Amino acid sequence: MRLATLVADPLIVNGTDATFHDAESDCIVCASGKFNGEVAAGACTECVAGKYLEDNRLNASSHDDVSDCTICAFGTFSGAATAICTNCGPGKYLVDNGVDVTAHDDVTDCSVCTSGKYQNQAAAALCAA
């Protein structure tokens, strides 16, 4: 199992390591919205806008590959490094259901219902007549 990232060593005295990263317990799991696909890396990588990663430092295997970042579902969008997607508001919709990340990467991806149609719920895929 790959661990998400190494913790920076807090015990550095006069430029010399007082201890070395020599145990699995020296590693921490990435925060929500981030992953790390490399062994012994020093930092986590943000999930791109339009994707989310909910787990917050609980399960290392949920943060060890870019595929752990999930594209938002219909009716939702996200910025980079988010734990959850944001709902499109009432009167708006977003059809794509987790296929095209670029269809979920900004609030402007939520379309306004056309004249004669409405949507009174948030996170909708369609408008009603």
Describe the structure in your own words:
The chain is an all-beta fold and 129 residues long. It has one domain (5-112). 0% of the residues lie in helices and 19% in strands. It is built from no helices and 12 strands. The chain has strands spanning 5-6, 12-13, 16-17, 27-28, 34-35, 45-46, 51-52, 70-71, 76-77, 86-87, 92-93, 111-112. The strands form 6 sheets. Strands 1-4 form a two-stranded antiparallel ribbon. Mean pLDDT is 86; it is low at 1-16.
Features:
single chain; two-stranded antiparallel ribbon; two-stranded antiparallel sheet; 129 residues; elongated; mainly beta; 0% helix
Low-pLDDT runs of 5+ residues are: 1-16
DSSP E strands, number: 12
Please compute the radius of gyration using only Cα atoms. 20 Å
Instruction: Tell me roughly what share of residues is in helical segments.
Output: under 10%
User: What is the spatial order of strands in the main beta sheet?
Assistant: 1-4
Average predicted local confidence, pLDDT: 86
- Give the helix tally: 0
Strand content: 15-25%
What is the terminal-to-terminal distance? 51 Å
Overall tally of domains: 1
Largest sheet: 2 strands, antiparallel
